[in-house]
């Protein structure tokens, strides 16, 4: 009887191990702030509503690979993306400037166009986001 319990426990552990490892790998991918604005938010919001962004292959943020600001793709980043998905039917960022104020504070400014769920169509509205980082991990996002 003990053998069956041990075999069952080992089998369950073996089956669950890839899912645990995969979720940790996805959670800790290193991305850049530029990617969040250029691709992730636009594609997530547009794809969730079956609308394709007209700038799908065009980088809107200043994309200097030598000075790209890496961050860990954490749960907070996923929450930001989810918030955009819940608030926008489609979205396009323009004239984005990403400024590293210091190693822990990033300022992102630019313009948003798209269809907001509450406000309707928005054309060229200025925005400012502040990213507070600690060791490359986003700890706070201020809109």
Can you describe what's shown?
- By secondary structure, the chain is α+β, with helices and mostly antiparallel strands.
- The chain is about 40% helix and about 40% strand.
- The protein contains three helices and six strands; from the N terminus they run αβαβαββββ.
- The chain has helices at about 1-25, 35-50, 75-85, and strands at about 30, 70, 90-100, 105-115, 120-135, 135-140.
- The chain has a four-stranded antiparallel β-sheet with strand order 3-4-5-6. It has a two-stranded antiparallel ribbon with strand order 1-2.
- A hairpin with a 2-residue loop joins strand 5 (about 120-135) and strand 6.
- Helix 2 (about 35-50) packs across helix 3.
- The radius of gyration is 19 Å and the shape is elongated.
- It starts with a helix and ends with a strand.
- The model is unreliable at about 20-25 and about 50-65 (pLDDT under 50).
Topology diagram in text:
Layout: H1 2-27, E1 30-32, H2 33-48, E2 70-72, H3 75-87, E3 88-102, E4 105-116, E5 120-134, E6 137-142
Antiparallel strand pairs: 1-2, 3-4, 4-5, 5-6
Strand order of the largest sheet: 3-4-5-6
Which structural class is indicated by helix and strand composition? alpha+beta
Give, in order, the helices and strands. HEHEHEEEE
Strand content: 35-45%
Structure summary, number of beta strands? 6
Uncertain stretches:
19-27, 49-63
Q: Any idea what the radius of gyration is?
A: 19 Å
Q: What value does the average pLDDT take?
A: 75
| Helix content bin | 25-40%
Task: Based on Cα principal axes, name the global outline.
Answer: elongated
Distance separating the two termini: 59 Å
Q: Given the structure, what is the number of helices?
A: 3
What does the main sheet amount to? 4 strands, antiparallel
